[in-house]
Amino acid sequence: MPCPTLARTAVAALALLACSAQAQTVLKIGYTPAKDSHYWVGATAFCAEVEKNTQNRFKCQQFPSSALGGEREQIEAVQLGTQDAVITSTGPVGNFVPEVKIVDIPFLFRDYAHARTVFDGPIGQDLLTKFPPKGLVALAWTENGFRHITNSRRPIHKPEDTRGLKVRTMENKVHMEGYRSFGMLPTPMAFPEVFTALQQGTVDGQENPIPVITSSKFAQVQKHLSLTGHVYSPALLLLSNAVWSKLSEADRKVFLEAAKVSVAAQRRKVDEDDANGVALLEKEGMQVVRNVDKTAFQEALKPAYAAYAKEFGADNIKKIQDVR
Ligand code: EAX
């Protein structure tokens, strides 16, 4: 029976009651960055679309700021169905869906336009099909942003400047291998621990996109920011199969369309933060190195690239690089 919007009769009033009782399936959606961050913007857009286009049969409850744990934990919970959705970077994703690892190679993407074209195109869309066999539904590729290095010790212009620095990285072997070739000492750590680790000096630095650095208030605990842009950090909107498998075809369409709107909103916020965030961080006291020797960083990566070619296939790497 369709749900009445207005109850003119007692029967309709009862139906309305019954509808509102079952009306709202609450979707728990989590992510590590704070409220007002790019992930929050993406989640808010997704939720608004889903709520509107299912006439509020679904309603979101958002959990920003790692309230549901780090990214690996949240992906596990989505896999188990104890959490409904997560927006996550690819940081730990390769441990669940190994085919994804290739997109974490440093200096693989030239710029935002290149990355977005790859993820929206056949390569990215094909990768999304690798998730369901692992008990995860990938609604869309979304975006974290190009990552930059911050640290408390010194300005970084070239790879040698990173030598011996203990830098927190994501739990991502592809990143760690690349960063080692820069000279750093990568220290993998879940995101919820990062602020305290920086504050207490357990690590000297970390690397993240501008929207994460600003929304996590890392300027309070880091002096130097170098615009290395050493790796593009993709993100994913993942839904639990427990939710997806119960959706009607029509609702599935609503969720997929909502994901598209969410991606567009999240990317817009990344663009805005990249445009305005650096000046903001400077105001908060960070010293910013803009003239990073990116060519030297790419040179330093050569041994790591040989290993990547072995692991992922030089052809597959080239296929991504060649996308225009
Ligand atoms: O996805 O862990 C990280 O550094 C990520 O960039 C952050 O959790 C946002």
Automatic annotation (TrEMBL):
Superkingdom assignment: Bacteria
Signal peptide range in chain numbering: 1-23
Cross-referenced CDD domains: PBP2_TRAP_SBP_like_5
UniProtKB keywords: Signal
InterPro entries associated with the record: DctP_fam (IPR018389), TRAP_DctP (IPR004682), TRAP_DctP_sf (IPR038404)
Entry keyword Signal: yes
Annotated transmembrane regions: none
Protein name according to UniProt: Periplasmic substrate-binding transporter
Naturally occurring in which organism (per UniProt): Pseudorhodoferax aquiterrae
Taxonomic placement: Bacteria, Pseudomonadati, Pseudomonadota, Betaproteobacteria, Burkholderiales
